[in-house]
């Protein structure tokens, strides 16, 4: 089974790119982030014609997450507990066959310091609490998406320039490793422990051409799935397409 994540940076504006990649890559399940579309503007007809069922949690102008699947999807929840006033569309959870999948668009948090960074850390705490509950289910669970964190210096071009960025602050990296310490496996690093791998390249300063990137899109696997992990790759070439997102699709392959 091929499972992917892709921050599309606007699902309607990038729809031709998304459909082209879906046709080329043929993933079984896809988590999308940064839809930048209200609930009623999600391009369901085009997604259906491409062969996918879909659930989505939209938001006007910003955020938004969706899960696409060639198989039926049963929605489990949208949003995280712990803040009744949080209306940002950043978490969507579904059951597909025996898999539980959480699609994540974690807050960026910049500028540091400030209220956006504080919100990011609080959101991370809510995610940790929910992830701890999920991992105790003893079921196959994946937490997938744009975490807006580079866990280690291998995951960022010129890390010394990012020390006080909200994506690389020590508090944020500690929060990510707090998740791993619950028993989750970072799928990409599990198969590529020493490689320089990026999933995002800024639109500015020829970042893609210089491979000046970041690894911020992640797959976390529950213990039940760790032994089934066969591949983990980035479709880097998609970042070079015309009118493409600043992220590239990332995918894993699970065996039986």
UniProtKB/TrEMBL annotation:
Positions marked as site (Important for catalytic activity): 217
Positions with a binding annotation for Mg(2+): 7, 34, 146, 148, 246-247
Cofactor note: Probably binds two magnesium or manganese ions per subunit.
EC number: 3.1.11.2
Pfam families for this protein: Exo_endo_phos (PF03372)
GO BP terms, alphabetized: DNA repair
Enzyme class, first EC level, given as a word: hydrolase
CDD domains, A to Z: ExoIII-like_AP-endo
Record-annotated Endonuclease/exonuclease/phosphatase domain positions: 4-247
Keyword Transcription included in the entry's annotation: no
Protein name: Exodeoxyribonuclease III
Organism: Chryseobacterium taklimakanense
Gene expressing this chain: xthA
